[in-house]
Amino acid sequence: MRLRIIRVIARMNIGGPALQVSALMRGLNTEYFDQRLFAGSVGPDEADYIEKSATDVAVSRVPCLGRAVHPADDLRALRELVAAMRRFRPHIVHTHTAKAGALGRIAAATARVPARVHTYHGHLLHGYFSPWKTRLVVHAERRLARGTDRLVAVGERVRDELLAAGIGRTEQYAVVPPGTLLPSPPERSQARRLLGLPQDSPVVAYVGRVTQIKRPDRFLTVAQEVRRAVPEAHFLMCGEGDLGPALRRDSGLDGALHHLGWRTDVETVYAAADVVLLTSDNEGMPVSLIEAGQAGVPVVAIDVGSVAEVVRDGETGLLAGPHVPELARHTVRLLRDPRLRHDMGERACSWTTRRFGAERLVDDTHRLYASIAVGRGWWPTPTEGEGK
């Protein structure tokens, strides 16, 4: 029996969730799964992953399903999702991201979809809202979890923090890390020519949304500290977001900061970099760090979310608290020690390629769906449902 899957995500903006959803839409065996993807529109300061990198992935647009919360629009999106589910009659609705997780699971309950799965690509427990709004979010997630068959966390620490907040039960959770395969990076010299960078200067890169939770302001402050110790250093910001215009106006780096915007060839950015720096207040399991590892670039990162499950501290990169002096000290250490960078980069490439491949993500998700199908009696045995 072929399982019908509806996948719902608020928006397919460039980032980890969109990359993971695209990998699943492409990778799950059509002999066993019939998938449909529903997504809202990206914001005005975001780039659309479907348009830039996944034109082969079919998506049904639900315009009112975007990130912003507007009760009238949300109700329209809910109605559209319920109608789509009643037409397609999925066995499983799998939701991604917070707003889509709420509307998608409510729609699935309304349409009487038998099984519901939700993936936490991170969480909203800190860094996003005021304390009272966070309490509302936690209350809503607790209620939604009660009607969800399986909760998927991208990392063990993300799962543990959700459980500590009373969201779901241990037996509901499956940990399914992201999976991706970075295209082969160009040679370092070619990458630097393409990006207009000096061939011999140390380069530190930021890859991600330029928005408050990612703390690009902290990145710039660290960059200023690093440049005091390594005056020839250059800094890349690959990404866009609501804070982009302000950061362009006043970086304090005197021409050493290069704003790249969104790029489809992110492998070129990694190839040009000596170190990738992550300065976020909150993360799930950042795909940018996985990609950096696959490109053989060591990382300096704040130890939040499941970052430590990607970056092995002292082996593939260096972890720190949210403190500018510590982040700057780690970055300077790597910039001044080519041998250490090389060794960490080689270990990072081996570890991330083995642990976070796209095929592994697809296999894990296949097994997750198979366990639901067997439990519901749709597939007779696990072995009959696991062929690929």
Automatic annotation (TrEMBL):
Residue intervals of the Glycosyltransferase subfamily 4-like N-terminal domain: 15-179
Record InterPro entries: Glyco_trans_1, Glyco_trans_4-like_N, Glycosyltransferase_grp1
Domain Glycosyl transferase family: 190-348
Record's keyword terms, sorted: Glycosyltransferase, Transferase
Listed Pfam families: Glyco_trans_4_4, Glycos_transf_1
A GO molecular-function annotation: hexosyltransferase activity
Keyword Transferase: yes
GO biological process: carbohydrate derivative biosynthetic process
Domain of life according to the entry: Bacteria
Protein name (Swiss-Prot/TrEMBL): Glycosyl transferase
